[in-house]
Amino acid sequence: MTRRRVVTERAVRDAARAGERSLDVSGAAVTPSARDAAKEAGVALVEGAERGVGPPPRLQDTAPATEPRHPSSALTIAIGADHGGVALRDVIAGHLRTLGHAVTDLGTTGTAAVDYPDFAVAVAREVARGRATFGIMVDGAGVGSCMAANKVAGVRAALCHDVTTAQNAREHNNANLLTLGGGLIGTRLALAVVETFLATPFAGGRHAPRVAKIDALDATRHG
Question: Whose CB has fewer CB within 10 Å in the chain, the N or C terminal residue?
Answer without folding.
Answer: N
